[in-house]
Please model this.
Amino acid sequence: MSEPGFLSALRQDLRFAARMLARRPGFSAAIVLTVAFGIGANTALFSVLRAVLLRPLGYGDPQKLVVLTRGATPIHVDEFRATARSYTETGVFSGGAEQMALTGKGEPEVVSAARVSANFLSILDISPALGRSFLSSEDRTGGPNVAMISTRLWQQHFAGDRAVLGRAVTLAGAPYTIVGVLPPLFTFPFADANTDVWITRPIEWSLMPVKSRPLSPYLHIFGRLKPDASLDDANAELVTLNRQYATAHPAMLDAKPSTADNPTRVRTLQESIVADVRLPLLLLSGAVGLLLFIVCANVASLLLARAATRAREFAVRAAVGAGRGRLLRQLLTESTLLSLLGGALGVLLAWAALRSIRTATARPRRARLRARTLAGHRNSLRSGARSLGIPWRSRRRSAGQPRKHCLPRQAAPPSRCRTARPASCRAGGALAHSSGECRAAAPESRAPL
Model:
């Protein structure tokens, strides 16, 4: 068959298939919806699997990035970094994000800050989008306070001003100098998703009391393996180093022998990120794959039942000259049309599901960010009021606490004064006070009753 004849026959088959499907809308809708449900569920879940498990991390040679599964004390960190030989570089980060009030430019804002060692960008093989990374001298105790900020904070708080480099800001009451801006899509795997500020000296993590820092394993070690070092080599070296550390420092909390079911070991960065969700996602993918198999079986059964009811039609078409190949091509066209409609609807369902997932995960983050921003405004107002000598008092009161206020009138009679201290009101009128207490008004300011 020539190409024009084939295209003409294909158009004829498509028109006939559309007419046949339109004649039985219930049957057609059932197949389209069944296919759409199966394809939509599999597409959405595979998108999640690809983003979480299959897509490589956005760092240079991510297979060589590793992290220790347990925390370490400052002494353990120093000894490990000095004696470990399986790594090109090792770094440290603290146990969690710090909430800091950012002032000095624009409106006050509470930001999430992560403490990392000075070489954390070098280990991740990431370069700043603007400015420079940290220096080793800035990671020592007593060194200068410097910070790197995210692109989001740079654009929203500093209006994308390139002169932000070298600018002094105040974080949690301490002056810091901004030295760099991180790339737009940069994320640190072990920091909060809303982290906008990175600062040095993890040992000074504010959430850990100063007296508890020497003995507490609140620091976490990560690094990059040497090209010729494997994960097994790093774990074997870790066992030796931990044994030596436990012998030298038996009183340290991280010198205690690890339990058999949770030993300290070296894991790849990818594995440490997805370890808690890998098995549930794989089980869910298997369940959804089984669902797609059931969908295909049901659709095949419906199409076979439908073909059985069309035996008379096929007999008539064969009697007027239609060959077996022509009939098969017509059935294939109808099945292809149903599959295309179901697939298109399934892609739309998958897009809607992924959008709902993003919305559901982003809403709590926006709520937390809004709460932190409001808290930052209250803290700034409190600091400003106190700097001006104005007493700041919270307007909150505990449940069951009586209200203490008078009518906001300079000449309120004693009988109309509502207060928990009626004696002060009977002393001669009252003035409303911001703290809710009643103060006696001067006699000359009282109006005659």
Notes: The first strand starts at residue 65 and ends at 68. Residues 324-387 form the longest helix (64 residues).
